[in-house]
Here is the input.
Amino acid sequence: MEKIAMSKAIQALLTGMLITFVLDFFLFLGIFLHYTEHYEVGVYYNILFADNQNWYIYFSLSLLLGYIAVYVKNTKISLIPLLLLALLSLLTLFKDIGYMAGEAMFMTKNTTLKSAKFSYVGDIIYDGREKITFYSYNLKKIITLNKKDLVQ
Here is the structure.
């Protein structure tokens, strides 16, 4: 009996991970198309997806969705949250919603960054691995700053 329970638990986790992966794919695709390309951030989709994946949320959602998909016997009850999350994820493919999701996830407004020579006041558009895409209020344009050149 324990083998069956363990097998179903693993099946639930793997099913949930697959469902969550598909939902995340469309979420980040909408953000990539309508936020990062809007600001010409210059980050590849794979890097955007991998660097900004919140693994705690991913595994929690995987467990929850896997449990719903495998253990809930009522199809109507199990399909409602799955379809709702799929709809929310697919909505980011619309320009305004994808932009708003990207803004909520990545933009930090009214920030000051300092390098050895300059001080920049504006909005962080995207904080990448090595570079920060930044809108400068003074310059009134988007600039790219190397993280290693910034002073803490």
Observations:
- The chain has five helices and five strands.
- The longest helix spans residues 2-36.
